[in-house]
């Protein structure tokens, strides 16, 4: 019998330096910008807040910092971004990075005070923005049965989870909340939420999925009914993840990007207790506690 692979992802370097940092915006290259704009307006309630060059569109909740950039092109992840509210956090990240550039201030719309931002690339070549505080008053302002509360996390696909985790933990300053015991999936936190970033070893690069918050279980029934009514297939869920303990449902945008709706995510209190990263068995029932059903793109190394 083959011995199961077991890998412990280390927390080294700057691990835990970030405690007040959250995802802020995300950019996609999509082949049909108008179709994507219509989808995001109809399904998620995001509206055009600005026009981008070459027919692109910047979407948000109608007020406050934007959420999504849609850029014409073949399907791809263009960039991800984090709002850093930790005191001295931006300067500290910049000092730890081997290379970064000043971020174009146009990305930091609705700034809270002086605008500051940096741009870098992670080990997979994904463009990552880190920027100063912004107004986010468009969040938490809607019927959560029809519009999400906020954009909450992003999960990146990779062929090397250990290298990506080392960058985001050891260099940037995230902490590991959970991992699969084979090292094939890691959930990273930068505030009280169980994860604001995750990395999964799918063999691909770029986006695996990104997620919006709902409020409670009752919202999921309303959303699944409404998605069905407007012809959007639920492609995974409802279910509950083991890591994070959050409820979930997934559907796709017109370009094929996987979108998650989530609620009841576990909270961490690093200012009051010392946590040790947990290692979940790499089986379907860890990823989905409710029977182990997986999406066609999600796989585990054991328990198939």
CATH structural fold name of the largest domain? 2,3-Dihydroxybiphenyl 1,2-Dioxygenase, domain 1
Shape: globular
Give the helix proportion (percent range): 10-25%
Structural class: alpha/beta
Supply the CATH architecture of the largest domain: Roll
H/E element order: EHEEEEHEEEEHEEEEHEEEEH
Number of helices: 5
The domain tally reads 2
The stretches of 5 or more residues where confidence is low (pLDDT under 50) are none
Ends: how far apart? 16 Å
- Let me know the largest β-sheet: 9 strands, mixed
User: Strand order within the widest sheet?
Assistant: 14-15-16-13-9-12-11-10-17
What fraction of residues sit in β-strands? 25-35%
**Oligomerization state of this entry?**
single chain
Can you give the mean pLDDT? 96
Whole-number radius of gyration?
A: 18 Å
Which CATH C-level class of the largest domain is it? Alpha Beta
Protein name: Catechol-2,3-dioxygenase
Organism: Kibdelosporangium aridum
Keywords: Dioxygenase, Metal-binding, Oxidoreductase
Domain VOC: 22-133, 150-264
What does this structure look like?
The chain has helices at residues 33-44, 89-96, 161-172, 217-229, 284-287; strands at 21-30, 47-52, 56-60, 68-72, 76-84, 101-102, 117-121, 127-131, 150-158, 175-180, 185-189, 197-201, 206-213, 236-240, 247-252, 258-263, 278-280. The chain has 304 residues and is of the alpha/beta class. The chain has two domains: 21-131, 2,3-Dihydroxybiphenyl 1,2-Dioxygenase, domain 1 (Roll); 150-287, 2,3-Dihydroxybiphenyl 1,2-Dioxygenase, domain 1, CATH 3.10.180. The protein has a nine-stranded mixed beta sheet with strand order 14-15-16-13-9-12-11-10-17, with helices on one face. Strand 11 and strand 12 (197-201) form a beta hairpin. It starts with 20 loop residues before the first strand and ends in a 17-residue tail after the last helix.
């Amino acid at each position: 019998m083959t011995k199961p692979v077991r890998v412990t992802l280390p927390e080294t370097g700057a691990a835990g330096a970030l405690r007040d940092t959250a995802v802020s915006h995300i950019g996609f290259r999509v082949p049909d910008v108008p179709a994507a704009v219509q989808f995001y307006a109809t399904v998620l309630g995001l509206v055009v807040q600005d026009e981008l060059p070459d027919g692109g569109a910047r979407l948000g909740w109608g007020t406050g910092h934007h959420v999504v950039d849609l850029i014409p092109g073949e399907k791809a992840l263009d960039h991800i971004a984090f709002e850093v509210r930790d005191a001295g956090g931006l300067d500290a990240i910049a000092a730890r990075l081997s290379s970064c550039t000043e971020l174009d201030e146009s990305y930091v719309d609705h700034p809270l005070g002086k605008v500051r931002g940096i741009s870098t690339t992670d080990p997979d070549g994904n463009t990552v923005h880190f920027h100063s505080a912004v107004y986010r008053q468009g969040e938490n302002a809607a019927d959560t049965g029809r519009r999400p509360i906020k954009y909450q996390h992003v999960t990146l696909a990779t062929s090397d989870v250990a290298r990506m985790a080392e960058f985001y933990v050891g260099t940037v300053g995230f902490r590991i909340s959970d991992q699969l015991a084979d090292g094939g999936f890691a959930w990273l936190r930068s505030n009280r939420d169980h994860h604001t970033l995750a990395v999964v070893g799918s063999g691909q690069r770029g986006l695996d999925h990104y997620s919006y918050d709902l409020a409670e279980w009752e919202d999921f029934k309303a959303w699944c009914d409404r998605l069905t009514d407007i012809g959007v297939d639920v492609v995974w869920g409802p279910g509950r993840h083991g890591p994070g303990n959050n409820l979930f449902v997934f559907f796709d945008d017109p370009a094929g990007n996987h979108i998650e709706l989530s609620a009841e995510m576990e909270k961490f209190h690093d200012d009051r207790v010392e946590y040790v990263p947990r290692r979940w068995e790499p089986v379907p029932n860890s990823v989905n506690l409710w029977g182990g059903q997986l999406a066609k793109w999600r796989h585990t190394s054991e328990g198939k």
